[in-house]
């Protein structure tokens, strides 16, 4: 049974971002949660070391890595630093470093989090996370209910946002030497699809798949996302 490490995005958790995929793949892979740092000040490589430590604790000598959003550049960094450990990489809604648009979004995210304005923060994250097509198809009452039921942001959010502003793996992309799949979220208002495609073009031999969602595929098309990931990972365990 192959190993699979999940690396989630900022403001979330492995369960929140990958829960459905992990349950679907649980019989084929030994799944490990690669959680992001809980405190600020650690730096990018310290975050990667924490993910590797989780794999070590689970007894995984080699493993595939599935990184979403902020988890994607962390997955790249992990694969470059530990090429003997990583067998495959899946990068969903990835970025190599935060651009001006993302930094503005992070700044507003941090301000709303620090002020405790959770309802406005949920609206901000929906605006910067959900694709226009999904929003147009969603009944207004259902959308209001979704936002009202959105979980409170975790206490680890400041550490995640700090990491999102620090990370820069542009120089690592050409050094990625394992099979890679880049899942481009084509209606993404946070990380532009063009930037995602540019990242894919910088990774030698990377496959690209396109998913018609915004930045939150686990909300908008979880089955379609899981199918893409499963097809790619299954090729590595046959």
Give the low-pLDDT segments. Answer: none
Helicity level:
40-55%
Q: Based on the coordinates given, report the CATH architecture.
A: 3-Layer(aba) Sandwich
CATH fold annotation: Rossmann fold
Apparent shape: globular
The share of residues in extended strands comes to 15-25%
Number of strands: 6
Rg value:
17 Å
Structural class: alpha/beta
The tally of helices reads 12
User: Any idea of the CATH class?
Assistant: Alpha Beta
Beginning-to-end CA distance, first to last residue? 10 Å
Sheet of most strands? 6 strands, parallel
Mean pLDDT: 93
In CATH, what is the homologous superfamily? Alpha/Beta hydrolase fold, catalytic domain
SSE order, as H and E? EHEHEHEHHHHHHEHEHH
Key phrases:
238 residues; Rossmann fold; six-stranded parallel sheet; 12 helices
Care to describe what's here?
With 238 residues, this protein is α/β, with parallel strands linked by helices. It has one domain: Alpha/Beta hydrolase fold, catalytic domain (Rossmann fold), CATH 3.40.50.1820. Helix content is 50%, strand content 15%. A 6-stranded parallel beta sheet has the order 2-1-3-4-5-6, sandwiched between helices. Helix 1 (14-25) links the parallel strand 1 (2-7) and strand 2 (29-34). Helix 4 (100-115) packs antiparallel against helix 5 (118-129). It is globular, with a radius of gyration of 17 Å.
């Amino acid at each position: 049974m192959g190993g699979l490490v999940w690396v989630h995005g900022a403001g979330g958790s492995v369960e929140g971002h990958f829960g459905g995929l992990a349950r679907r793949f649980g019989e084929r892979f030994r799944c490990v949660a690669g959680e992001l740092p809980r405190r600020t000040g650690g730096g990018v490589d310290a975050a990667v070391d924490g993910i590797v430590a989780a794999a070590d604790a689970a007894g995984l000598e080699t493993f595939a890595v599935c990184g979403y959003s902020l988890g994607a550049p962390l997955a790249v960094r992990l694969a470059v630093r530990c090429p003997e450990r990583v067998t495959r990489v899946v990068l969903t809604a990835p970025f190599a470093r935060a651009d001006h648009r993302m930094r503005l979004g992070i700044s507003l995210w941090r301000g709303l989090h620090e002020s405790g304005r959770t309802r406005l923060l949920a609206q901000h994250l929906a605006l910067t996370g959900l694709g226009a097509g999904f929003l147009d198809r969603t009944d207004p009452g259902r959308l209001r209910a979704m936002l009202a039921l959105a979980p409170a942001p975790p206490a680890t959010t400041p550490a995640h946002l700090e990491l999102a502003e620090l990370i820069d793996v542009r120089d690592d992309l050409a050094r990625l030497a394992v099979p890679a799949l880049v899942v481009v979220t084509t209606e993404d208002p946070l990380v532009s699809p063009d930037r995602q495609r540019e990242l894919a073009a910088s990774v030698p031999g990377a496959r690209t798949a396109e998913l018609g969602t915004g930045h939150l595929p686990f909300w908008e098309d979880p089955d379609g996302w899981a199918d893409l990931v499963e097809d790619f990972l299954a090729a590595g365990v046959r």
